[in-house]
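Holo prediction. Input below; ligand is FE2/S2 (inorganic) cluster.
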Amino acid sequence: MTTPGPEQPDPERQSGGTGTATAAAPSGPLAGGVHEPTRADIGEKTLRKDRYWVTPAITVIVLVAWLTYGVVRVFMQDYYYVDEHHYLTPFYSPCTSTGCVEEAAHFGRFTPNHALIPFAVLSLPLLLVFRLTCYYYRKAYYRSFWLSPPACAVPDGHKRYTGETRFPLILQNLHRYTFYLAAAIVLINTWDMILAFGGDEGFGIGLGNLILIFNVVMLWLYTLSCHSCRHVTGGRLRHFSRHPLRYRWWTFVSKLNTRHMLYAWMSLGTLALVDFYIMGVAAGWFDDLRFL
Ligand code: FES
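Structure of the complex:
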């Protein structure tokens, strides 16, 4: 038996091309997506002629590079604190391991010191889940890693589409809860940034401080522009007129939200930048540039 291809349109599938309600829903591997009988039977994989694959390819390269760097740094368990200027990298904050140097442990040392347990074991898994379940990152890695779909008007790389209604993708709903915890961790990062103004010789400002500030600003912008934050500020309200304060917050967050993708990438970049800078100063590769 031959399978009708684009050159030999399947009469049964074509009959649904008019969008009649009587078209039988497909089952099996062709269920859903562009293979629905109500969709035009186009032979080409896509009609797009531009290099739509460039963005997903760049996304894969950058995310893999960032994750590789992050894993190496987290398990290095060294060069995370600059004693002289009290710089603590966010990759090790809060530093709760009994292996942390005392000055870096702003919230105490109580988690086990083991080569396979990050010094910031309380925050890193949480932040990973927060970013993994982020609405923007979901779009980015669904498109780039899973080709689901790789771009607009390009068919899904998979024959079936089940959305996020089943395990494990239903766990993406955890995002709204991790938002609160991620916001608490940004508060901790902010506290680290403030403490970094008081070095061994008292108040001072160096390039490390400026990078720490830049990073914290980016982290706040990313966190406050979160879709869950937008819901927290303005969701479940029937009348904004009765909640003027929440309306203001919602308006503010909504404006930030339009740039959520930008903040997602910027904050990823500043995290790596601040960590690399602190590692360099702590390792003695270069000195911190002091202004005051
Ligand atoms: Fe991206 Fe919440 S949607 S952090």
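The radius of gyration is 25 Å. That is the main takeaway for now.
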